[in-house]
């Protein structure tokens, strides 16, 4: 027989754990770079840009458009890298907490 109360308790437990993980995402960081490292961006798990480092050689007004493009690329690389870290944190937080139902990915429900 299916234990509905047990399942509801597991869901509540998973939700509490996910909230804790989400609150701690501010401490998860990832870096992205572009232009062979000439522009580097650091973001956190809350998808906030923490730092943008630019090589001095790009601070020429003639390179303005290239600097803009490299900055966007570096930030996008960092955001993609932090997404991987966020999914791993969420997966670890819910591992073994919820039943394995084919076709249902509970870790994506909370993130």
UniProtKB/TrEMBL annotation:
Gene Ontology, cellular component aspect: bacterial nucleoid; cytosol
Keyword vocabulary terms for this entry: Coiled coil, Cytoplasm, DNA-binding
Single GO MF annotation: DNA binding
Cell compartments where the protein resides: Cytoplasm, Nucleoid
Top-level lineage group: Bacteria
Residue runs in coiled coils: 4-31
Primary location group: cytoplasm
Protein family per UniProt: Belongs to the YbaB/EbfC family.
Subunit text: Homodimer.
NCBIfam families according to UniProt: DNA_YbaB_EbfC
Function: Binds to DNA and alters its conformation. May be involved in regulation of gene expression, nucleoid organization and DNA protection.
Protein's name according to its UniProt entry: Nucleoid-associated protein A3SI_02748
Organism: Nitritalea halalkaliphila LW7
């Amino acid at each position: 027989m299916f234990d509905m109360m047990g399942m509801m308790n597991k869901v509540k437990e998973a939700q509490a754990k996910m909230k804790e993980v989400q609150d701690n995402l501010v401490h998860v960081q990832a870096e992205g770079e572009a232009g062979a490292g000439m522009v580097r961006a650091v973001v956190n798990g809350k998808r906030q840009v923490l730092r943008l480092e630019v090589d001095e050689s790009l601070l020429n007004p003639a390179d303005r458009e290239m600097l803009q493009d490299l900055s966007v690329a570096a930030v996008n690389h960092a955001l993609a890298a932090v997404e991987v870290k966020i999914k791993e944190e969420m997966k670890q937080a819910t591992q073994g907490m919820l039943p394995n139902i084919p076709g249902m990915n509970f870790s994506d429900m909370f993130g």
